[in-house]
Amino acid sequence: MSSRVLLLDIEGTVCPIAFVKEVLFPFFSGKVPSLVSSGEPAVEELLTQFPQDKQQCLQEYILELVDRDIKDPVLKQLQGHVWAQGYEQGEIKAPVYRDAIELIRRGGEVYIYSSGSVKAQKLLFGHVADPDSDRRLDLQPFIRGYFDINTSGKKTEAESYRRILKDMGREARDVLFISDNELELDAASEAGLNTLLAVRPGNAPISSNKGYEIVKDYSAL
Ligand SMILES: CSCCC(=O)C(=O)COP(=O)(O)O
Ligand SMILES: [Mg+2]
Known about the structure:
Structural class: alpha/beta
Oligomer: single chain
GO biological process, one term: L-methionine salvage from methylthioadenosine
Enzyme class: hydrolase
Family: Belongs to the HAD-like hydrolase superfamily. MasA/MtnC family.
Number of domains: 2
Largest sheet: 6 strands, parallel
Radius of gyration: 18 Å
Shape: globular
EC number: 3.1.3.77
Order of helices and strands: EHHHHHEHEEEHEHEE
Number of helices: 8
Bound molecules: ligand L4RZE5RM, magnesium ion
Strand order of the largest sheet: 5-2-1-6-7-8
Cofactor: Mg(2+)
CATH architecture of the largest domain: 3-Layer(aba) Sandwich
Helix content: 40-55%
Strand content: 5-15%
């Protein structure tokens, strides 16, 4: 398995779901009032992409998207913009699992595919909490490429994985996709990728009837 190209999900696969739901999302939600009134051109440009009938109640609309964990491409870009401040000011560090850090550092071909924007992904892997000190680790040099719902489409659609393979210039049989989400594995399998179901502490219970091979520890990969 070590020669395979790896395509890794983030939330529930390389870091705990709680980091996204209890740290990143609340950090963003707390900044929404100042975000919508910031007048920053880049932010304004994104806000205008939300539906016309939501323009009068943008704050409530954005907070509802976050609460319902809607994978909206505009929301994901706004989140990346806000999280940048948190990472750069040292308020946020990403608790990537120790065995995921080792897997990524091992020097194989590693790609990331997350609903979080490419900008948010680069921030996360550039600001990883060192499990052995209070320093931060930068894993970006070990990652070949990043894919998100803007670059490649929804993670639950096979076509998205076909686009990713084309961008990587790889055959499906050479790529191993690891995710905690069986719907994502369904789509990746339909596109012909190899798959593993990540089972980590804090993940939602898995449905027992799909039969995906499970991985609980990445040290054997
Ligand atoms: C780039 S970290 C933020 C992750 C995020 O916003 C999210 O919605 C989680 O999606 P994933 O596809 O990584 O499960
Ligand atoms: Mg996930």
